[in-house]
Specification:
- The complex is a heterodimer of chains A (253) and B (557).
- Chain A starts with 8 loop residues before the first helix and ends with a helix.
- In chain A, β1 and β2 form a beta hairpin.
- The radius of gyration of chain A is 23 Å and the shape is elongated.
- With 253 residues, chain A is mainly α.
- Chain A has one domain: Four Helix Bundle (Hemerythrin (Met), subunit A).
- Helices cover 66% and strands 2% of the residues of chain A.
- Chain B has one domain: Cytochrome c oxidase-like, subunit I domain (Cytochrome C Oxidase, Chain A, Up-down Bundle), CATH 1.20.210.10.
- In chain B, the strands form 2 sheets. In chain B, strands 1-2 form a two-stranded antiparallel sheet. Chain B has a two-stranded antiparallel sheet with strand order 3-4.
- The termini of chain B are far apart.
- In chain B, 54% of the residues are buried.
- The chains are: A mainly alpha (253), B mainly alpha (557).
- The interface between A and B is large, with 41 and 53 residues.
């Protein structure tokens, strides 16, 4: 049986595990430990209904941790490059960094990306409702898919809008004379950061399409949950990364 | 056809582990050849080498670059970490397999692609291989005109390492998800074999360090092709022409590179530390002294290793205050390392030493770890490092602590796990011969380099002898090092013969030939729940023998 959670009164009173969170011990289908989180005595590597979900969440988590380091390296390079310079003939320390005014459309893009995070989360939550999963088990169609698919499509459209908006921002910058080739290092960083983040979103869009196709083709409920859940966490992380990068580009020039 | 395809692109982790070892063998063979060419050239600089001609200074630099890149990325990163972990990690934690077998297989094939691209750098680019060393400091590496091999050769190097970064990242994600999520019930943190602890820490380091290297590679590639100037300083000149544009910072590359480069050292040597701990317990029939402390210190070494990259940059013009801070943290690493060594010695002390080949190589690892480690705090001292940094002293240091310690731990692993790969044991006599010749010649090769370095012999220079020799007294030392290196390389033929002969005609191994306790030696599935620690050995004198992890604790009378 796939991972579900029942939003019934008893459980909420006991402890609300949150969406997709760990159910309390006595409700774990595997029986659970039940006797507290003893470091030495806890059954690890549980092979219950949540096994697949936990495995893929761990994988996504670690992959994104590495990705975070990649962006941290870029951002630290941004600050180092900003402060590096040379001494001119008069012994004055000079620096070629020209602050870049980011195109205003980026604010709009940011709003669109945040909105897409919301739709993504709504889509993700649709897949974990016990009532829907039970209905499917009983052979009453796939209500979860029916409810989540529109939200996934909305996320896809918003994601594409964001990418289109970024493209417009680049075109505006090029018209203002800040192409990548221009000698200004801050414009190099602008293209590099937005470009690499955009590339991540392109992967995200492909993953979204994969999840959408998977919703209709994957036979096992668990696999559909895994597909949407993994894409959702990836998408949220890219949203958070973007907020940090956007703040960097706007306020730390 | 389909069968062959399925056999090659397998997702079986044990097969992939053997594939990784083959890849490392190919890389180490090429890398050793290159190092012998270098040694040969240092002693007979004007000799005509067959298929090579007279070696020009840039050829020597190309050899240095390719030797370093091959050995560090494709031998010391792949064999102990990916090779052995694929071989036994899932069994050791009682998992049914890797968490992501396809990602794991993809990581291997990407590594192969990276290897082929790197090898091609030496052949298809007109200038030959890149010449800026495995560290590829800009501005030399940032400008295609800076030397032969710095054009297409350098580009191919960057592409190869970029692919390698992605492969390492995929592999680390799989390892971490496996170790954290796939352990069998009851396989708690304190029941993990020490090898698993080491792979865990090394995987975390891989994840964090290679991401930063990938970013640095992307920035450098952009500098070379898209007109940016992240690393190229103002007024940089080639052939009297100013080519620098913008206020790029070569130091930035050093920071990014060594943020990767130092953890990389631990990625290479941590698995060896874990394996040595296991082997010491096994071959002395004792429990690991201070298991929790030993595991904790592995983690501490990993964490500290992330914060010491600046000690590679003392002479780079970095802020001296930063140098002091890095020196302090670097010397702090001596503490967990010493705890590890004391833990090993405590395990060995009074144990019933069984000096079989895997144990000998583990002891060899320990010996190199101590001897190479002792020069670490010396080099961590900025004032001393100012003198020693560009000398052979550093070459001696890292070849002992990383290269020899790493390679001896790989040998220990191969002798130890050979029955798992082939069902046969390796020849013990040849193993001992291989060990003693290798040990003596390895010290013969790398110990004298300390003296050459103290005498001021610079590294990265293609010759001492020439029209004007500044170091005539060092030439006998150089000659001795070269002879010793040739012997060291020749000794490896004993090993190769032993591997391939034993694989076909070796003694058939009984189940659990080393009377080990860890789960990879269990001949059946084992229990549903692990109830024992990883090293429950009792001294033979106590008459109790040992308790493998697959034994149930309740059976005990």
């Amino acid at each position: 049986m796939p991972a579900t959670f029942t939003r019934n009164q008893v459980e909420i009173e006991r402890k609300d595990p949150g969406i997709g969170g760990k159910p309390p011990y006595d409700r774990r289908p595997t029986g659970g430990g039940g006797d507290g989180e003893n470091w030495d005595n806890q059954p690890s590597g549980r092979h219950g209904p949540r096994e697949l979900l936990i495995r893929y969440r761990l994988g996504v988590l670690f992959a994104l941790a590495g990705d975070l380091m990649f962006f941290v390296a870029l951002v630290s390079a941004f600050f180092v490059r900003q402060s590096s310079g040379h001494f001119d003939v008069h012994d004055n320390f000079t620096n070629d960094w020209l602050p870049l005014a980011v195109p205003p459309i980026l604010w709009l893009n940011t709003a669109v990306l945040l909105l897409s995070g919301l739709t993504m989360e709504v889509a993700r939550r649709q897949l974990f409702h016990e009532i829907d999963v039970m209905e499917e088990w009983l052979g009453l169609g796939r209500p979860a898919v029916k409810r989540a698919a529109p939200w996934l499509m909305a996320t896809l459209v918003l994601g594409l809008m964001f990418l289109g908006g970024q493209w417009i921002a680049w075109e505006q910058l090029v018209r203002e004379g800040y192409s990548f080739i221009s000698p200004n290092p801050s414009s190099h960083f602008f293209y590099l950061i937005t470009g690499i983040h955009g590339l991540h979103l392109v992967f995200g869009i492909f993953a979204l399409m994969g999840a959408l196709v998977g919703m209709f083709t994957l036979k096992r409920v668990e696999l559909r949950q895994v597909a949407v859940d993994s894409v959702a966490w990836y998408w949220h992380t890219m949203g958070v990364f973007w907020i940090f990068l956007f703040v960097l580009l706007v306020f730390f020039q | 056809m389909k069968r062959i395809f399925a056999r090659i692109f397998t997702t079986n982790h044990r097969t992939l582990g053997i594939f990784y070892l083959y890849l490392a063998l190919a890389a180490v063979a090429v890398g050793t050849m290159l190092s012998l060419l270098m040694r040969f050239h240092r002693v007979w600089p004007d000799a005509v080498i067959p298929f090579f001609g007279i070696m020009k200074p840039e050829d020597y630099l190309a050899l240095v670059t390719m030797h370093g890149t091959l050995m560090i990325f494709f031998v010391l990163t792949t064999a102990p970490q990916s090779g052995f972990a694929n071989l036994v990690l899932p069994e050791q934690i009682g998992a049914r397999g890797m968490a992501f077998p396809r990602i794991n297989a993809a990581a291997f094939w990407l590594t192969v692609v990276a290897f082929l691209v790197l090898i091609s750098a030496a052949h298809i680019s007109s200038g030959g291989a890149p010449i800026s060393g495995w560290t590829n400091y800009p501005p030399l590496s940032a400008l295609p005109g800076a030397g032969p091999g710095q054009g297409l050769g350098m580009d191919l190097w960057l592409v190869s390492i970029g692919i390698f970064c992605i492969a390492a990242w995929l592999s680390a994600v799989n390892m971490l998800a496996t170790i954290l999520g796939e352990r069998r019930a009851g396989m708690t943190w304190t029941r993990l074999p020490m090898t698993v602890w080491a792979w865990l820490v090394a995987s975390i380091l891989t994840l964090l360090a290679f991401a930063v290297l990938l970013a640095a590679v992307v920035l450098l590639f952009s500098d070379r092709h898209f007109g940016s100037s992240f690393f190229i300083p103002m007024g940089d000149m080639i052939d009297g022409r100013v080519v620098g544009h913008g206020d790029g910072s070569p130091l930035l590359w050093l920071h990014l590179f060594w943020f990767f480069g130092h953890p990389e050292v631990y990625i290479a040597v941590l698995p060896g530390m874990g394996l040595a701990t296991s082997l010491f317990a096994n071959f002395t029939r004792r429990r690991v002294a201070g298991y929790r402390m030993m595991a904790g210190m592995l983690v501490a070494i990993g964490l500290l290793g992330l914060a010491v990259w600046g000690h590679h940059m003392f002479v780079s013009g970095m802020n001296p205050y930063a140098g002091t801070a890095f020196a302090m943290i670097t010397m702090a690493i001596a503490v967990p390392s010493t705890v590890e060594v004391i833990g090993w010695l405590a395990t060995l002390w009074g144990g019933g030493l069984r000096l079989q080949a895997p144990m000998l190589f583990a002891l060899g690892f320990l010996s190199f770890f101590i001897v190479g480690g002792l020069t670490g705090p010396l080099l961590a001292e900025p004032a001393l490092d100012a003198y020693l940094h560009n000398t052979f002293f550093v070459v001696a240091h890292f070849h002992l602590i990383m290269a020899m310690a790493g390679v001896f731990s790989v040998f220990a692993g191969i002798y130890y796990w050979f029955p798992l790969m082939t069902g046969r044991l390796m020849n013990e006599t040849l193993g001992k011969l291989h060990f003693w010749v290798s040990l003596i010649t390895a010290y013969g090769t790398f110990l004298p380099m300390h003296f050459a370095g103290l005498a001021g012999e610079p590294r990265h220079y293609d010759r001492l002898a020439g029209p004007v020799t500044s170091f005539p007294s060092l030439i006998p030392v150089e000659r001795a090092i070269t002879y010793s290196a040739l012997l060291l390389a020749a000794a490896q033929f004993i090993f190769l013969w032993n591997v391939f002969a034993s694989a076909r005609r070796g003694r058939i191994a009984e189940a659990n030939p080393w009377q080990a306790t860890t789960l990879e030696w269990a001949d059946a599935e084992g229990p549903m729940r692990i109830e024992r620690g990883p090293y429950e050995y009792e001294l033979p004198s106590s008459g109790k023998g040992f308790h493998p992890q697959w034994e149930s604790a309740t059976k005990e009378e």
